[in-house]
Every structure is written in structure tokens, then in C-alpha cells.
Known about the structure:
Residues 91-144 form the NfeD-like C-terminal domain. This protein is 42% helix and 21% strand. By secondary structure, it is an alpha+beta fold. It has two domains: 7-75, no CATH class; 83-150, CATH 2.40.50.140.
Amino acid sequence: MIDGIDNYWLWLALGLALATLELLAPGVYLMWLAVAALATGGLSFLFDFGWPLEIISFVSLSLISVYSARRYLRDQPIVSSDPLLNQRGGRMVGETALVVQPIESGSGRVRVGDSEWIARGPDTAAGERVRISGNDGAILLVEPIALIADKAPSDGSEPAAGR
């Protein structure tokens, strides 16, 4: 007991302070320390075993809660409903882009919407359309679009089915 305050009140206050810090600066770590502090406060209320055992209890419960949560989250990860939320280049895969600076020696620039991006792909003249096939960080990987008209044979016959 510290100056008329029971130990369990201090542990409960520490647990609530850690939980509040977790809300203010989320990182999914302080939450487990808050759980350990609250559990130590509960044990201290029930058994009143003194500071040394309470500190050992807090450290032990902290280790148990952190490693248990870590193992649980490793085995059952939280799956996002939109995994490409912060990957703008990944969200553009499949879209078409206009080449604004010719792609020469594997590098050029393309326009997607109102933005220009560095692009890598086969040599392509400015003004042609390309399809975005992937991204490498902020660099878009592009491939030429093969239009149906480009696939028609030059002798005037119909294209074969399945081409």
C-alpha cells in the first residue's frame, strides 16, 4: 500500500492508462500490457501478496499475453476486405494507359487518368495505348494492347477461331 492507496488501484490505473495509450497510438502492443496490468490488479485485490510478487505477476502475465496474442495472430491473421487499399499501382492492374513519352529501351511514361507514371515494358511509340500488367513500387509494368483489328490477316480472310 502506498500512502493509503491499495496496490490493486494502482494496477487498475496502470491498465487503464496503457489501454488509453493503445487507443491514442495504436500498435497492438500496449493492449496486452494493459490486460496484464488489469489481471495483476484483479489478483492483487483477491490475494494481496505485496509488490514483489505483483511485479513478478505483471511481468509473467505480460509475457504470456504478448506471446499468446502473437501466436494467435500468426496462425489466424486478420484479412483485409481491401488488400490493395494503400497500393495504388496494384489497383491499376488491368487498366489501359496512354503512352506520353515513348517507351524506349524498356522505360518511358504513361498517363493514367490525370497522372503520369514511369512505365517499363516493350518499346512503344507515344500516343499508343498499353495495358498495365503490374507494378514495381511506383513504376508501372505495361504491355501493348493487341486490338482485334490488328489480329485480322492481311489477305482479307476471316481470322481463325481460337486466335
